[in-house]
UniProtKB/TrEMBL annotation:
<feature type="domain" description="Dihydroorotase catalytic">
    <location>
        <begin position="49"/>
        <end position="120"/>
    </location>
</feature>
<dbReference type="InterPro" id="IPR011059">
    <property type="entry name" value="Metal-dep_hydrolase_composite"/>
</dbReference>
<comment type="similarity">
    <text>Belongs to the metallo-dependent hydrolases superfamily. DHOase family. Class I DHOase subfamily.</text>
</comment>
<dbReference type="InterPro" id="IPR050138">
    <property type="entry name" value="DHOase/Allantoinase_Hydrolase"/>
</dbReference>
<dbReference type="GO" id="GO:0005737">
    <property type="term" value="C:cytoplasm"/>
</dbReference>
<dbReference type="GO" id="GO:0004151">
    <property type="term" value="F:dihydroorotase activity"/>
</dbReference>
<dbReference type="InterPro" id="IPR024403">
    <property type="entry name" value="DHOase_cat"/>
</dbReference>
<keyword id="KW-0378">Hydrolase</keyword>
<keyword id="KW-0665">Pyrimidine biosynthesis</keyword>
<keyword id="KW-0479">Metal-binding</keyword>
<dbReference type="Pfam" id="PF12890">
    <property type="entry name" value="DHOase"/>
</dbReference>
<comment type="function">
    <text>Catalyzes the reversible cyclization of carbamoyl aspartate to dihydroorotate.</text>
</comment>
<dbReference type="InterPro" id="IPR002195">
    <property type="entry name" value="Dihydroorotase_CS"/>
</dbReference>
<protein>
    <submittedName>
        <fullName>Dihydroorotase</fullName>
        <ecNumber>3.5.2.3</ecNumber>
    </submittedName>
</protein>
<dbReference type="GO" id="GO:0004038">
    <property type="term" value="F:allantoinase activity"/>
</dbReference>
<dbReference type="GO" id="GO:0006145">
    <property type="term" value="P:purine nucleobase catabolic process"/>
</dbReference>
<dbReference type="GO" id="GO:0046872">
    <property type="term" value="F:metal ion binding"/>
</dbReference>
Amino acid sequence: MSSVLIRNARLVNEGREFEGDLLVDHGRIVKIAASIEGENAVTEIDAKGQLLLPGMIDDQVHFRDPGAPDKGSFYTESRAAVAGGITSFMDMPNTRPATLTLAALADKKRRAAISSVANYGFHFGVSNDNLDTVAALDPCSVAGVKVFMGASTGNMLVDDPRILERLFAEVPTILLAHCEHTPSIQANERNLQELFGEAIPAAAHPLIRNAEACFHSSSMAVDLARRHGTRLHVLHLSTARELALFEDKPLAEKRITAEVCLHHLLFDDRDYTSLGNLIKCNPAIKTQADRDALRQALVGNRLDVIGSDHAPHTWAEKQLPYRHACPWCNTPSPRCWSWWPINFCRSPPWWKKPAIESLTCSPFPIAVTCVKAIGPTWC
């Protein structure tokens, strides 16, 4: 790529919004200034009246490579991400096979190196059987380590208290936690089955995977992290009650951070009536009060990251009866990611700053060691 000079754009970066110019040379941003003169750029673009946003980081995606690349491979999903303004993604370990070994991690890196057009990193998985491997990980080889403290998909539930204690004490890098209390979920589902049999409606999902199940697990994770000094990142908060577990202070001062996902900001339990299993996801989309509390928490510093939790499924899988329908929102790519720049332009001023910071300032300082290309990227 030759040089490109973008003039008169409205740039949003590092807490500031200002009019200026941006120079790209051979695919790298080399200069940002109020006015750039004396550069013989091959291409010059007048962006007056348009926003120029930093390339966004998605800390949680579930691409289906390996295992089911027909649903979403590194080739297809990285291109969808870039089309929506995401220039870096971090892929979760519950693929087939799960990323529980160094060999599986190396295979993913090989696949992404061949196919991905975006920067990438990988989270390593934890099971009840691979803690020695996790404890010996080179922190520079992974974006983070993912633990399922509640059963979701991929048979990676870690429910042995002794394993959890060791994990929080010995994990060598940032620990990401999916927090739902499985015994509570199972009891709730049995109660609903007594009422509905096999015909449980999608609207029952937040009653089965309810706020209590989330808080029980999240509070346990936060307690473990505080006792062991673990660098913890709790994924996809879905309830107002959980917000009290996290501190309202700048990211740089935290050891425990939290993510919120697109679907928990957009939908609430009234939407099951029209969308049914299309918004079935784990943890469940809950009440309007929960949704509004999550939105408000972004204005402060209790929530640190917005992720997509993008996990492609087929339309047929989402049309199955509730108990068999795949548990992830099925927002089509790249619409899943392009929602952000589109709605940023329509957002009130109080929303813009936290939205951009939550999408472009990653709490994963180690992640850049795993990506294909290092350097500033903008969309």
